[in-house]
Design goal:
Distance between the termini: 69 Å
Number of domains: 2
Strand content: 35-45%
Structural class: alpha+beta
Order of helices and strands: HEEEEEEEEE
Helix content: 10-25%
Shape: elongated
CATH topology of the largest domain: Immunoglobulin-like
Largest sheet: 5 strands, mixed
CATH class of the largest domain: Mainly Beta
Length: about 120
């Protein structure tokens, strides 16, 4: 063994560790969800059997956030069975959920506690 040979081995090993760490960080960053600012938000207001909107249009295959505000004096349960979305919202509260992009179609929603007067639909195009 020549002098300096072990040090070159250590340098190579340290360089490889650095590359592995960098690759792991890139893979982790790619797997993380998009920043919250990058996700469009749709707001639905419920008020004891009244609803602010009945039709929400969104682009296909793009994540989106649903924000449900309960302005009423009774609880609300915002639900869309085909989207797998269910949010129980206390009076005076707001709940949100980010959903993955969906295929084109029409997805009904309603407040389960006031089904007759709060029906609407997400229209994904």
């Amino acid at each position: 063994m020549t002098p300096g040979a072990p040090s070159r081995g250590l340098e190579r090993r340290d360089a490889m560790r650095g590359l592995v760490r960098a690759a792991a960080m890139l893979a982790l960053a790619a797997a993380l969800p998009a920043r919250a600012d990058d996700v469009p938000t749709v707001r639905v207001e419920l008020d004891d059997g009244k609803i602010s909107t009945r039709r929400i249009e969104l682009p296909a295959r793009k994540r989106f956030r649903v924000e449900v505000v309960n302005k009423g004096k009774t609880p609300a349960e915002f639900e869309s069975l085909p989207l797998g979305l269910e949010l129980v919202v206390a009076p005076g509260s707001t709940r949100t959920r980010v959903l993955p992009g969906k295929s084109p179609g029409t997805y009904p929603f309603f407040d389960e506690f006031h089904m007759e007067t709060t029906r609407g639909e997400f229209v994904i195009k």
